[in-house]
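[Amino acid chain]
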Amino acid sequence: MNSEKIIFLDIDGTLIDYTQKLPDSAREAIHLAQARGHKLLISTGRSKPAIYPWLLELGFDGMIAGEGAYAEFGGKIVFESPIPEAQISRVYTYFEDRKLGLYEESNSGLYGNRYFLSETACFFGVSQEVAAENLLRAFPGLTFGHQHYHLDVNKVSFVMTSTISKTELEQEFGDYFRLGIWNIFGKGRGFGDFTQKNLSKATAVAALLNTLGLKREDTFAFGDSFNDVEILQYCQTGIAMGNAPDELKAVADYVTSDVTDDGIFKAFEHFGLI
């Protein structure tokens, strides 16, 4: 493969496993692809402050973050679409009034409200100290105890306690938000999040390519989860990890092996990227 390609890489379950470990083979693939002149970008549901600093040290050319609400290239912002204040205010008020835990992911930080830590501890059956330690390992920079919403928020996540009804939340906020349910530390359905219905990783990729004058035909996207459907469909070549759900594999152009079975390296090699 002679021409330079633009490669978008999801983090959790794609680049790294769920113990926050980057396989040596993935690290090697990244370095080899960079040496070939390809552009490598992170593509994650995480907001920028939630991305592991050690991962950024690998020298990525840019990122898609915040579930498509933010994109940067070469250290410069090329796309940004935070949740409007009116929308973030009504979510925050709803959870505060019911004494429910949430945290906001913004480009300036990660902000847990005054109920988030205690609810997380209760959900996992651990002390608040242990819960804080686990959360900070998964989300570096997360702070707790906030009592007011912020203005540069990309997404809102919350503890999926027994008092929360998915149906009720969809009825209350489904006009503007997409509701996702996900797990953490191997415990199913532990958290939910609100993201903007009109955005996806693909939205930010399209904006980035247009701004930089790059070609869609030169793009590759790697992912392992439901929030990767749009980007795998949009990019010229969409690659699902072996540990991805069948629904994602169905829309992919190629399925590689699991993240823990050298999936990134094998796919890079298969497509001549290294």
Q: What stands out?
A: The chain has a mean pLDDT of 93. DSSP finds ten helices and 14 strands in the chain. The CA atoms of residues 155 and 195 lie 5 Å apart.
